[in-house]
Write a structure and sequence with these properties.
Blueprint lengths: L6 H20 L1 H14 L1 E2 L13 E16 L2 E16 L4 E4 L12 E9 L3 H16 L3 H20 L11 H10 L12 H4 L8 H21 L7 E5 L16 H15 L3 E6 L7 H12 L5 E4 L3 H4 L17 E7 L7 E6 H7 L5 H17 L11 H10 L3 H17 L10 H4 L4
Helix pairs in contact: 3-7, 4-5, 4-8, 7-8
């Protein structure tokens, strides 16, 4: 259909803009109050020179992509999944980084993983079996082991906060974990840990797009685990997206399988003295564009700054504009907003709360600020590539490697159809009806 740019479309523009402004004005007073709070706590910092004397370190970044339903037949769909990583070592004295040759065993090629999955609609048990097998094969551990380990840490941490002078009881079995959780008033889901399909939130069996996302996240976390388990130590490990956790009100137990893998990655990273940095290019943080404009007016466009988003538990304060966003900051995470360049919008990062408490937080607020500035100086330096100035170049490299473009997707589909044909199948059955009719 051809879109005509006539008066009708102009009226649609007007209706949308009017609605947009009405939404903005609804919380204008709340935003103004929050702007005052954020401005007072905003930290401007001077970046490291491109060439400087700093201790070199390794960093890596991971991103995932793929192509949903490259082939469909009746209620069966086949999906292409990819995940890729980029790893570098800084050379501050030369003002550059050098590619690290790391080859995690899980990878199918030097830059990452390619997988195919087959899903069938309305077969929930089948999908769950496929999903659990996929986790075991790629993450190299069963979901049950990961869930038990993560819940053990959640309960142990909560017990330590509640009873700091008491030794942590044994948490070797599910029964132990549940008993200690009950002792400290920590709610856990009633179902057995391993009955995942009954208590975990998952897409419907006939919603392949939702499952596609969960399978893809498993691949990303599988690479993260492999990098952390390698002989190479990484100071920073960047992942695309946020650390949001889906949890029921009043509970501390995540409800999504990938959330457990993410928590497990962070626990592993903490032991390895690695900082996991979850980067959101686009975020649902309200008024972020206005914040950028207002702060650029007062500070100048090229000032580098960061702000930690407050929480009730840590700061006894929450932003008015986040009253309907309880997932920001995420559970078990600490959120910062930051600005490195006027060419890039304000970005958000989430850090693991356990790592933050150990490496950033301090009763001495001057020391805490110093720790924050050192962190942001490091990651700002990792956003100096001329092609991606203001954004972490390793994440950009990983993204460019993993993205599946239409010609590549079609090539994989055609090769698969050829393979099926060699096995005696009718190729027409696997070609999309629109394509057979010349509509795509």
């Amino acid at each position: 259909m051809q879109v005509f740019f006539d008066k009708t479309l102009e009226k649609e523009f007007e209706k949308i803009y009017t609605k947009f402004k009405s939404i903005e004005l609804q919380d204008d007073k709340a935003y103004t109050q929050d702007l005052d709070y954020l401005t007072k706590r905003l930290q401007v910092f001077d970046p490291c020179p491109s060439i400087c004397k700093k201790e070199n370190f390794n960093s890596a970044a991971i991103d995932g992509s793929g192509a949903e339903s490259i082939i469909s037949l009746n209620d069966i769909s086949i999906h292409l999944l990819t995940a890729a990583f980029a790893a570098d070592r800084t050379h501050f004295a030369e003002g550059t980084t050098r590619h690290l040759k790391v080859s995690p065993p899980v990878c199918t090629h030097p830059e990452g993983i390619t997988r195919l999955i087959l899903l069938r609609e309305d077969k929930k048990n089948e999908v769950w079996k496929e999903f659990l097998d996929f986790i075991l094969y790629n993450y190299n551990e069963s979901l049950e082991d990961v869930v038990t380990r993560v819940l053990r840490d959640i309960v142990a941490t909560a017990f330590k906060d509640k009873k700091p002078n008491d030794p942590i009881p044994k948490l070797t079995t599910e029964m132990n974990i549940r008993m200690v959780a009950k002792l400290i008033g920590l709610k856990l889901h009633k179902e057995d840990f391993k009955k995942f399909s009954s208590w975990m939130v998952s897409p419907r069996a006939n919603a392949p797009r939702g499952w596609f996302e969960q399978f893809r996240e498993v691949l990303e976390y599988a690479i993260a685990k492999a990098l952390l388990d390698s002989d190479t130590h990484f100071k920073y490990l960047f992942i695309d997206g946020s650390m949001n956790m889906l949890m029921d009100p009043g509970q501390k137990q995540p409800r999504l399988a990938p959330n457990y893998l993410l928590r497990d990655i962070n626990l592993n990273a903490f032991k390895n003295e690695t900082c996991v940095v979850a980067v959101s290019k686009t975020t649902t943080f309200p008024y972020i564009y206005r914040l950028a404009l207002d702060l650029e007016k007062s500070l100048g466009k090229e000032k580098k700054w960061f702000i930690r988003v407050p929480t009730k538990s840590r700061d006894n304060f929450t932003l008015n504009i986040l009253k309907d966003r309880p997932h920001i900051p995420p559970a078990y995470g600490v959120t910062y907003l930051f600005h490195f360049s006027s060419d890039v919008p304000i970005l958000r990062i989430d850090l693991d709360e356990k790592w933050w408490k150990e490496n950033i937080s301090s009763k001495d607020k001057k020391k805490e600020t110093e720790n924050e500035i050192n962190l942001f100086k490091d990651i700002d330096w990792l956003a100096r590539d001329v092609r991606y100035y203001g954004y972490f170049f390793d994440l950009a490299f990983a993204h460019n490697t993993t993205i599946v473009r239409f010609p590549e997707r079609d090539d994989v589909a055609e090769r698969m159809i050829d393979y099926f044909t060699e096995k005696g199948e009718d190729p027409k059955m696997f070609i999309h009806p629109r394509k057979r009719l010349g509509l795509m």
